[in-house]
């Protein structure tokens, strides 16, 4: 049987380990998706290198002069790139800019993000450090739909990670990352299967859930 592969565009600003995990899940036949393009706002992002190594189109698109957002013109270029590649889902994988109206409107309900904390706690930057310094006993990660707020969209999957007494920010981040790599692929697979139904703030997963 030939399964349809969901065409995905990935936006990433840095190391790209979440991108790599998605590639690995796809190559192992565990994720019915095809990464059509990886776009970065950082010219020498390792994520671009990882994509090229797997024969995936990789583009740096100038974000414009602002530090935390893309300019409207830049957003237009990002939208066009997704369109040119026939992308149906955008996966933010360590993309460190806030997306605004133009991009959000062009891909309404079709943008996912992975965040390294149990939202709604610790949104924004350095979430693992925020959680560690706050002193929580359990942290984790969240895959959610992207809306106009900062890490505020409807939550699809979360995974918890206990904080140990002897943890450092680095050791905690490492264990959270392992869970990120697992649940991001799981969420995208559910999206690919058309099993995510959004009811207000709640995301209902239809059908039986096989956790991997
Ligand atoms: C990941 O921990 C991801 O959750 C986080 O950046 C890291 C990127 O790592 N994203 C955010 O903090 C977004 N607010 P990666 O480049 O190795 O995937």
From TrEMBL:
Its EC number is 2.1.2.2. (6R)-10-formyltetrahydrofolate binds at residues 67, 96-99, 113. It catalyses: N(1)-(5-phospho-beta-D-ribosyl)glycinamide + (6R)-10-formyltetrahydrofolate = N(2)-formyl-N(1)-(5-phospho-beta-D-ribosyl)glycinamide + (6S)-5,6,7,8-tetrahydrofolate + H(+). It is an enzyme of class 2 (transferase). InterPro entries: Formyl_transf_N, Formyl_transf_N_sf, GART, GART_AS. The record marks 151 as: Raises pKa of active site His. GO terms for cellular component: cytoplasm. The keyword Isomerase does not apply. The active site is at residue 115. GO terms for biological process: 'de novo' IMP biosynthetic process. Residues 10-188 form the Formyl transferase N-terminal domain. Keywords: Purine biosynthesis, Transferase. Pathway: Purine metabolism; IMP biosynthesis via de novo pathway; N(2)-formyl-N(1)-(5-phospho-D-ribosyl)glycinamide from N(1)-(5-phospho-D-ribosyl)glycinamide (10-formyl THF route): step 1/1. The keyword rRNA-binding does not apply. N(1)-(5-phospho-beta-D-ribosyl)glycinamide binds at residues 16-18. Pfam families: Formyl_trans_N (PF00551). GO terms for molecular function: phosphoribosylglycinamide formyltransferase activity. Catalyzes the transfer of a formyl group from 10-formyltetrahydrofolate to 5-phospho-ribosyl-glycinamide (GAR), producing 5-phospho-ribosyl-N-formylglycinamide (FGAR) and tetrahydrofolate. Belongs to the GART family. This is Phosphoribosylglycinamide formyltransferase. The gene is purN.
């Amino acid at each position: 049987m030939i399964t349809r592969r969901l065409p995905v565009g990935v936006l990433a600003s840095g190391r790209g380990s979440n991108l790599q995990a998605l590639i690995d899940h796809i190559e192992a036949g565990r994720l019915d998706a095809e990464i059509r393009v990886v776009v970065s706002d950082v010219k020498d992002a390792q994520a671009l290198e990882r994509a090229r190594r797997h024969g995936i189109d990789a583009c740096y698109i100038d974000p414009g002069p602002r530090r935390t957002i893309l300019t409207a013109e830049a957003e237009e270029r990002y939208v066009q790139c997704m369109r040119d590649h026939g992308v149906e889902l955008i996966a933010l994988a360590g993309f460190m800019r806030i997306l605004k109206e133009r991009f959000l409107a062009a891909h309404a309900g079709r943008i996912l993000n992975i965040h390294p904390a149990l939202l709604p706690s610790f949104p924004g930057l350095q979430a693992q450090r925020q959680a560690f310094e706050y002193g929580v006993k359990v942290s984790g990660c969240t895959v959610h739909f992207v809306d106009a707020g900062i890490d505020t969209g409807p939550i699809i999957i979360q995974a918890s990670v206990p904080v140990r007494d002897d943890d450092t920010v680095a050791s905690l981040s490492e264990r959270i990352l392992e869970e990120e790599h697992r649940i991001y692929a799981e969420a995208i697979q559910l999206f690919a299967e058309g099993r995510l139904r959004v009811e207000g703030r709640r995301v209902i997963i239809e059908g039986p859930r096989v956790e991997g």
